[in-house]
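The records we work with from here on pair a chain with its fold. Here is one such record, which you should read through line by line:
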Amino acid sequence: MKLQVRRKSGSIFTAEDTLEVAFDTDGIVMVSGGVFHKIELVSGQDVTHGGGGQADEYLHYKSADRDADDDGIIDYSQVEIPVVQQSEGVSVIRVVCSYMVKAEVDAYLASRDAYQLRAVAANMTPEHPFGPDGSFTELFEDVAPSYKEIKSGEITLEWTTDTFV
């Protein structure tokens, strides 16, 4: 997997820039609605993203053009993130992506559902947590998948004013 970022628009004379973020997942499918981005400030001036989100606040970015349909599939391979420097100067940042892998979530849900079916078959109830005859001794111990993080390389943003010469 690889997360890369580059400036798509903006200049050293404005506080606003647009970053293009490319997320190469090597064909691994992410959970729709389960990919979030934030900005990591390495050094310099504070930066917000997504219209006012703090740098360390995760936001959900998707392409309005590609992902506006009702099929539920969101393509996270390329998104745009608007960033704004809060004061003049230089900011060195990284983009951080938090994600869940669909296959891991599906495997967990299948394991949980199979456990619940076995529990129902054993007549397990809150009053009889091991079944009426005490024969259901299984515990559900699978750990739900957790979010993973990947970081881009560093990108430098600069906001300055020109002087008359």
